[in-house]
Amino acid sequence: MYDLIIKNGNIIDGTGAPKKISDIAIKDGKICEIGKISGASNRVINAENKFVTPGWVDIHTHYDGQATWDPYLTPSSWHGVTTCVFGNCGVGFAPVKKGKENFLINLMEGVEDIPETVLSEGIDFCWETFPEYLNALESSKRIMDIGTQVPHSALRFFVMGEDGANHLYKPNENQIITMRDLLEDALNAGALGVSTSRTTKHKSADGNLVPSLNADDKELAGIAEALKNTKKGLLQCNSDMGPGEMELLIQASKYSGQPLSVLLIQYNDFPERWRETLNYISKANKNGIITTGQVGSRPIGVLMGFNTSVNPFSSHEDWKKIKNLSNNERNKILKNDMNIRNTLINNVPENAHTKWIKKTFPLTYLLKEPLNYEPTKEMSITSIASSLNKSPWEIILDHFISSNDDEFLMHTFENYTHNSLDVIAEMLESKYTICGVGDAGAHVATICDASYPTFMVPFWSRDRKRGKLLNLEYLISKQTLKTAQTYGLNDRGALIEGMRADINIIDYENIGLTKPCLSYDLPAGGKRLIQKSNGYNHTFVKGIEVSQNGEFTGELPGKLIRGSQSIN
Ligand SMILES: [Zn+2]
């Protein structure tokens, strides 16, 4: 007797193989048969005209805090994600000494834009060491499987104290050895790797550069040695990729004998640099050093609105008079009071904020339905304003008050230098890239890219209007088997007999995203941008249905993943 048979689905198995119509039988959380199945089953789902895929494996999230208070891990669980990995980009909440938690909160607030009040109220720090953090994560039920990595900044601060917070201070030999030993303990306890940040984009909330910014080869060698000694885990890195960076990281990975995964992003200041990084990645792989580039699927940017973290008008004097009003009340004033309208549009204060906002106009677009994540140059605020002979501020203001919902601008600051997603197509086409950089759980009131998988599948296989499309089966492999394999999660990511039954049944005709909106549902009433999905008929985690047509079933079969996994 099977637990479940999914009949007549169009199976996209995650390996990149062409889709085929077949049945899948599930028992005890595993896929036990694929083909024409006639045996008895407790439940049968007719998946005719539906796609049956592995659950998405999102390896670039920041649920380090949220995972301790929210069993549902939204937004990811609204988007077919059945496994997520956090502890990315060198930031997280363990190890941490009692009384020193605020340093890590401040760092997470600055680097990943998760408010301090949310983290302070949400997290019950009942751990100090990384293995204790894993135990805390393991003690609660949740909707999907989670895995995590040791954040370099936390490790550094734990070992070096206040010195460790300063990126200019180098650890001494003993401190390097202590970091190595603690990392070994963490890897042996089940950490999936270690992550580090080497980007000047990352600053703590009080403006300091991240501790790990320019860790030298000795410090990195200490980290690599822990990977080498345990033969476990991966090195994940977010770097500006300036001169010498890839050499250093590849050297560390080579020494460790373990894989490397880096972010692959187009920066506006160096729009071609990602190609050099990708060349390094390809070369490293050819030399036997397993290296992946984590890529996005749409522009990376900031959503701006009246109520988001970044509001173009926030420094206008007259804004302060209306900022605490509801959207309704505020819109009434902004539609009728010509004085206040006029000052907001024409009396723009000269300061760093407005200077930056003005600079964004050529790469900022009105986000309207139907959502367009590849707008043309003519759709930028600059172009619209000049074609209508109006002030850009008027265009923005009228957009924000066009409804009583929150309306947004999309400012693209990465992956969209030339107003085209052709760079993403090129990145996705490399066999050494995987889907990542959605930063789910982070940047809560500036972006909501936890929805990447739901965007990627229809956009890149069907809906894109301004350039080439990619093969659907290939795209899905980048979000399933390839991401799972990157972290050694060899028990999932493909619909193959013996694998975990982490499965999405998708209505491809209707898969898509809803408009982003603000929700005030974080601890302490903190706000975040959320974006929901359509088209996921069923999502199963280990054979148990966790959501049906966008509604959670209440089942929480997700577990903490400790270390790499194999079938059985
Ligand atoms: Zn990140």
Question: What's the quick description here?
Answer:
The protein has 568 residues and is α/β, with parallel strands linked by helices.
Please work out how many helical segments DSSP would assign. Answer: 20
The total count of strands amounts to 25
Any ligands, ions or cofactors bound here, and which?
A: zinc ion
Overall 3D shape:
globular
Query: Which architecture of the largest domain would the CATH scheme give at its second level?
Result: Alpha-Beta Barrel
What is the number of independent domains? 2
CATH topology of the largest domain: TIM Barrel
The major sheet is characterized as: 9 strands, mixed
The percent of residues in helical segments reads 25-40%
The radius of gyration is 24 Å
The average pLDDT score comes to: 96
Structural class: alpha/beta
Beta-strand residue percentage? 15-25%
The H-level CATH homologous superfamily of the largest domain, spelled out, is Metal-dependent hydrolases
- As residue ranges, the low-confidence spans are none
CATH class of the largest domain: Alpha Beta
| CA distance, first residue to last residue | 21 Å
Protein architecture, described:
- With 568 residues, the protein is α/β, with parallel strands linked by helices.
- The protein has two domains: 56-298 and 416-506, Alpha-Beta Barrel (TIM Barrel); 311-410, no CATH class.
- Strands 1, 2, 3, 4, 5, 18, 23, 24 and 25 form a nine-stranded mixed β-sheet that branches. The chain has a six-stranded parallel β-sheet with strand order 9-10-11-12-13-17.
- The protein is globular, with a radius of gyration of 24 Å.
- The site of zinc ion (ZN) has 6 residues, from loops.
